[in-house]
Every structure is written in structure tokens, then in C-alpha cells.
Design a protein that fits this description.
By secondary structure, the protein is mainly alpha-helical. The chain has one domain. It has a two-stranded antiparallel ribbon with strand order 1-2. A hairpin with a 6-residue loop joins strand 1 and strand 2. Helix 1 packs antiparallel against helix 2 and helix 2 runs antiparallel to helix 3. The longest helix is centred in the last third of the chain and has 16 residues.
């Protein structure tokens, strides 16, 4: 794992699968590694922008969007939860929060 680097597709695409070996069913495939920079740019532009979306919905969308992009080899869920918490903290205009989305 290359800490802090975008994932690559050297071992194939990032997929969520189930089923026996050789009979896997692909439920989801993340964007190809070559699209990560563009996808993250779009996500961060939205995340750092302002709109009238309900703060809890915005936090949930941010979490889902980052996990869907799946930009890193490991830690995507942890980072997505931190981003959801950050979205809520921003909506409250407070650096401190006494609850967590986790």
C-alpha cells in the first residue's frame, strides 16, 4: 500500500463481489484509476462549495460519494466518515463536535 497515493488498477479494477471463486458476481466497480484525479476534483469542488442541501443529507452524500470513488487502496471508509463529520461541523460553524456519524 502506497500511503497517500491514489489506488492503481495493477491488480484489476476495484470491485465489490460475492460468490464462489470463478463464479463471482460483481455488484459494484469503482471508477478506473485513470479517472481518479477528475472524480476527486469534481467531488472536492462540490464539497467545498455551498448550497441549500440539508446538512445531514450533505454529510451522507459526501460519505457515499467518496466511498463510491474509492480513491485509496485502504482507509476509504475512515476518510469518508471523517469527511461526513467535517461537513456537519462546517454546517454548525464550529470546530468542535460532541457526536459522531460513526
Amino acid at each position: 500500500i502506497a500511503v497517500g497515493r491514489w489506488r492503481d488498477d495493477a491488480k484489476g479494477p476495484m470491485q465489490v463481489v460475492s460468490g464462489a471463486l470463478g463464479r463471482e458476481l460483481v455488484h459494484f466497480e469503482a471508477p478506473a484509476a485513470k479517472r481518479l484525479k477528475k472524480e476527486m476534483t469534481l467531488f472536492l469542488k462540490w464539497f467545498n462549495g455551498t448550497d441549500d442541501t440539508d446538512p445531514v443529507l450533505r454529510a451522507g452524500l459526501a460519505h457515499l460519494w467518496l466511498v463510491t470513488i474509492h480513491p485509496f487502496e485502504d482507509g476509504n471508509g475512515r476518510i469518508a466518515r471523517a469527511i461526513a463529520d467535517m461537513a456537519l461541523a462546517r454546517s454548525e460553524q464550529s470546530p468542535q463536535r460532541f457526536y459522531s456519524m460513526s
